[in-house]
Amino acid sequence: MENITVVGIDLAKNIFQIHAVNGYGAVVIKRALKRVSVLKFFANLPPCLIGMEACASAHFWARELAKQGHTVKLMAPQFVKPYVKSNKNDVNDAEGICEAVSRPNMRFVALKSEEQQALLLVHRERDGIIKERTALINRIRATLAEFGIVVAVGPRKLSAWFAQELQTQEALPEVLLRHILRMKARLNQLETDLALYDREIDMASRENEQCRRLEQVPGIGRLTASALVATVGSGHEFKSGRQLSAWLGLVPKQCSSGGKTRLLGISKRGDGYLRRLFIHGARAVLRHMNPDRRVTEWLGALSGRAHKNVVIVALANKLARIAWSLLANRTDYREDFSHIVN
User: Fold this and answer.
1) What gap in Å lies between CA 211 and CA 204, rounded to an integer?
2) Where is the Transposase IS110-like N-terminal domain (predicted)?
């Protein structure tokens, strides 16, 4: 037990697989633990390096094991997979994790605090409510279209129709009217919940200094700022803004071989929610852009030779790099980036 230096844990709901090796790489422990025995088991070990996949409950276990003095590192599952030998099972997975965490060039996932996780859950729930609202609105419009009533696209247009036209539809069957009113009540509840989550995010953004710094940049609003801070923290896991933009999937995907470089569309790797927020922010900058700003020259030259969507992604890439520099306290936005987006 005293010779253990590296431990790989294959996380699960109830049964955890442990693979531990000493400084020479020899296997010391290979066993399964029940959930209630995990913390007790590691409390009896000397401080060591523990590797886990960044999956469900990984951040919770990493925080708990770090409190016991261990060094805990999380890895993306796709980076661990090449180290898994033969068939996939819990024993081989734990061995692969133990091997991967000791690699010097392995990429690790930043450990999130409880506050970061809580804020991210608010973002995820808000995003889910928006999807539910969109689906419900589409069902309402489709139901009305079956009876010859066409409602314009959008939540506001539907709300206006409910306020002005619903009471005048006397020719509709009573069963349908009751059905529409029930769907309207569900839609109102979703709108209420959405407003509550918006206020939660607003409060978190106002109380966080990093969020306030990020919101100085056009194209980065309260949603993008709070989601970015909750996801990457100070951004020190990335060596540069280019790494952050690549992690967000805002760079071209490569298919190169034989010395020939071939760039495809954006890779779409990493956090899709954050990538979508940055792209929406860049689209808003282009839509409301002042022609007198110095950014117009750069975007104008790019717009002359590329599609509009390519320009939007290029600007989103640049916004991500600016955001990393601000998070890492490498520069001040007004001093060094005013010539890019002002």
Assistant:
1) 9
2) 7-147
How far apart are alpha carbons 279 and 314 in whole angstroms?
A: 9
Residue 302 tokens, joined: 């790019």
170 pLDDT above the threshold of 80: no
Structure tokens belonging to residue 178: 């009751």
| Nearest-angstrom CA–CA distance, 16 and 9 | 7
| Both structure tokens of 192 | 């209420």
List Cβ neighbours of 10 (8 Å cut-off, separation of 6 or more).
Answer: 16, 17, 19, 53, 90, 93, 94, 97
Q: What's the pTM value of the predicted model, to 2 decimals? A: 0.83
Residue 5 identity: T
How far apart CA 162 and CA 155 sit, in angstroms, is: 11
For residue 99, what are its two tokens?
A: 């091997």
Distances (CA, A) of 120 to 57, 153, 213: 14, 30, 19
Give the model's pLDDT for residue 339.
47
* Euclidean distance between CA atoms 20 and 30, whole angstroms: 6
